[in-house]
Design goal:
Length: 335
C-alpha cells in the first residue's frame, strides 16, 4: 500500500488519474466477484436440461464406454434410473453382463453389452458396435473410457505402449464412438454427448504429459464439435473432472474435494447445458468443490503458477510411487 502511495506521489498523479485507476480496479474486482457468484448460482441453484429431452422414458438409448466400473458404471445406473435403455461397453464381459442384468431387473429397461479393448483400436470392434447400435435410437453418448500413466513419469522415460494406449483410448475412442452415433443424432435433431474431461486438460500436468495432452485435446475438440452440432440439435458437454474416488484415481476415501462417483455423476446429469465452474464453451465443471477449484485456477495466479504447482505435486507422487514399487519388489523377493 505504501509503495502505491509513494508511486502516486512521485508520479504526480492527479486526482482524476487516481480515480480512473481506482474505478478500473473496482470494476475488475466486481467482475471477478460476479463471476464467482455465477459459479455458486450454477452449481447450487440452477437445474440443467432434463435427460427426458434426450429420450429418457421414451425408448432412447445411452451408450456408455468404460461402463463396468467407477464413473462409467455410475452413469449406467443413473441413466437407467431415469428410464434410459443402455449400451454398456468395456473389456470385461462378465462384469458388463452382471451390471446389465441388475439394471434390467431394477429399472425395467433394455440393455446391450459389447466387450472390447479400446487400446486395440480394432476396426472390427467399431464395425460390430456400429451394427449393434444401428437398430436402436441412440440419444446419449458418454465418452467415459479413459486410461492414464501407471505412475507420474517423465515423458522421455514413458513406454511407447502406454503413450499409444492413452492416445487410442482417450482420444481415438471418443472420436470413433462419436462418429458412429452422431449421424443418427443429427438426423433426429436430438442428442447429448458427454465427454469425460479432466483438470489435467485444464492445466498441463508434468509427468502425466500424455494423459494431460489427451484431455486437452478432448476439451478443444468438444468445444469445436459443440459449436458445429448445437445448431443441429445435439448438445456436447466436456466435463472438467477433478479427483473422484475410483480405481483409476487410486483414491478410496471421499472428502470435500474428492466425491464418490454417485454424487459426482448426479452433478453432471443435473447440470447439462450449464457451465458451473468452467469458463470455456461447451464445458461444465458441475461438482461444487471442483467448480470453485476451477474458478480459482482461472482467476487466481497465472497459468504458469498452476503448471509449476502440478509439477511439484507429481514429483512428490512419483517419489512415493517409486518407493511403493521398491517395497513391493522387496516383498516379492522375500516370498
Ligand atoms: N477418477 C478420477 O479422479 C478422474 C479424474 C478426472 C477424469 N477422470 C476421467 O473419468 C473417466 C472414468 O474414470 P474412472 O476413474 O471412473 O476409471 P475406472 O474406475 O478405472 O474405470 C474405467 C472403466 O473403463 C474400462 N476400461 C479401462 N480401460 C479400458 C479399455 N482399454 N478398453 C475398454 N474399457 C476399458 C474399465 O473396465 P474394464 O477394466 O472391464 O475394461 C472401467 O469400466 C476417465 O476418462 C478418466 O480419465 C477420472
Amino acid at each position: 500500500m505504501d509503495k502505491i502511495v509513494q508511486f502516486v506521489q512521485k508520479s504526480n498523479c492527479n486526482a482524476t488519474t487516481v480515480a480512473v485507476f481506482g474505478a478500473i480496479g473496482a470494476a475488475v474486482v466486481a467482475f471477478k466477484a460476479l463471476s464467482l457468484f455465477k459459479v455458486f448460482v450454477d452449481v447450487f441453484l440452477r437445474s440443467g436440461i432434463n435427460v427426458k429431452k434426450y429420450g429418457a422414458g421414451r425408448g432412447g438409448w445411452a451408450v456408455i464406454t468404460g461402463a463396468s466400473d467407477g464413473i462409467g458404471k455410475e452413469f449406467a445406473f443413473q441413466l437407467a434410473s431415469k428410464k434410459m435403455n443402455v449400451v454398456l461397453v468395456s473389456r470385461t464381459e462378465s462384469k458388463l453382463k452382471a451390471i446389465a442384468q441388475e439394471l434390467e431387473e431394477k429399472y425395467s429397461i433394455q440393455t446391450k453389452v459389447y466387450a472390447m479393448d479400446f487400446t486395440k483400436g480394432a476396426d472390427k470392434d467399431y464395425q460390430a458396435l456400429q451394427q449393434l447400435l444401428e437398430p436402436v435410437e441412440v440419444t446419449v453418448l458418454v465418452n467415459n473410457v479413459g486410461t492414464n500413466h501407471e505412475i507420474p513419469t517423465p515423458f522421455e522415460q514413458e513406454t511407447d505402449k502406454i503413450i499409444n494406449d492413452i492416445v487410442e483410448v482417450n482420444i481415438n475412442a471418443a472420436m470413433k464412438m462419436t462418429k458412429i452415433v452422431v449421424p443418427q443424432m443429427v438426423a433426429r435433431k436430438n442428442g447429448l454427448i458427454i465427454n469425460l474431461g479432466s483438470f489435467a486438460g485444464l492445466v498441463p500436468t508434468p509427468y502425466l504429459s500424455v494423459y494431460s495432452g489427451s484431455k486437452a485435446f478432448l476439451s478443444s475438440w468438444s468445444q469445436a464439435i459443440g459449436a458445429e452440432l448445437a445448431p443441429k440439435g445435439v448438445t456436447v458437454q466436456n466435463v472438467n473432472t477433478y479427483f473422484v474416488v475410483s480405481a483409476m484415481s487410486k483414491i478410496r476415501k471421499a472428502n470435500f474435494l474428492i466425491p464418490m462417483p454417485k454424487p459426482y455423476v448426479r452433478s453432471v446429469l443435473g447440470q447439462i447445458g450449464i457451465s458451473g465452474g468452467a469458463s470455456t464453451p461447451y464445458t461444465s465443471t458441475p461438482y461444487y468443490s471442483h467448480a470453485i477449484a476451477n474458478w480459482l485456477i482461472d482467476n487466481v495466479f497465472s497459468r504458469g503458477f498452476w503448471v509449476n504447482k502440478n509439477y511439484d505435486i507429481q514429483v512428490d507422487i512419483r517419489k512415493r510411487a517409486l518407493r511403493k514399487r521398491e517395497r513391493e519388489a522387496a516383498a516379492a523377493k522375500n516370498e
